[in-house]
Amino acid sequence: MNKIILTATLPLFLAACAGGQIANHEALSQKATERAGVSTMTPQQAIQSASELMSKASLDQLHFYAPLHMDAATKSYENAQSLMAKKATNQEVLAAAFKTEATIKDAVRAKQIVETTLAASLKHKQILDDLGVQADLPKDYRSVMKDLKKLIVEVGKGNIEKASKDQPDLLADMTELEKDTLLKRHLAPAEDMLDKAEDYDADDNAPKTYELAEDTIERIEGFIKQQYRDMAAVKAAGEEAFMAAKHAYHVGVEAGGLLELSPEDAEDKILKFEGLLKTIGQSLNAKPTIGNSLYDQAQLLSSTAEKLRSKQAQPVAIETTNSIEAGGEEVEVLPNQDAVEQPLDVAPVESDQDGEGDEAA
Known about the structure:
Layout: H1 10-15, H2 25-38, H3 43-59, H4 62-65, H5 67-85, H6 90-117, H7 119-131, H8 133-136, H9 138-157, H10 160-186, H11 188-199, H12 202-205, H13 207-226, H14 231-259, H15 263-283, H16 294-313, E1 322-326, E2 329-333
Antiparallel strand pairs: 1-2
């Protein structure tokens, strides 16, 4: 089983153990007292042995798996040190030190029960920690860890059946927390962008695009809740939602600007669009498309790009310059000139829309 990440959650477990008592507290005390009565160890040796066990308990993560036991063991250990300092009887010091040892050994047993009884919860905790949930939703994470701690404490008290019965509710909360974390990371940016679009009146100026973005975000939310374990798909879905919201924002801003244009400004806007198409045409080495409508210019450039892509997809064999012998003389063979790429000659096309093909944009 993977090690549970404890650094940030351990204080939550230790803080809630005060007042709790392990199931066999009295039996451990009685066993320690009986052992002290027959032991030949010195108080110093007993305390040293208890100290070593305390250190090992920390390495074995018993503070997490058996918090009640470790709370009791710590108190017994401190009591043993105090009794020795007060020069109490050897048997009193030994009893306190031996109780520390007995409690820690019982904590190991409790840990095994926790690992079996709460295996599903511990596994889901590891998933949450690997996901880094605490950084995104710290308050919700602390709440879930507090509930997990309660179940572990119940096991320490001996209420194993109760811990098992309450575990499904904890698992449901963990699942919701996992989903909420992914929604915050991968969907919240799209929601924020759509809010920004609304600030620029995209819902009024570009209602179709805005509603499409709303529908996309709603759909992606449902997808993430269903496929939350498919991280690659969740990330891609989040990007799709963000692009839809960003599209709504930009269309809304541009549409709002168009509504306020004067005739002169409208002409400048069209010429700007035409300049963008011209830049694209130059990058494709196409003939100028001016003299056609914006729609037709876009169609011409699309056709140019398609021809260029088709031509590039065809392998072209270009011979290297060689010298061969012909009739005893060397003849130089030049590269095939037909294989050298020439600028594409694209003729204007007629528009399918009445009159638009004859307009000069």
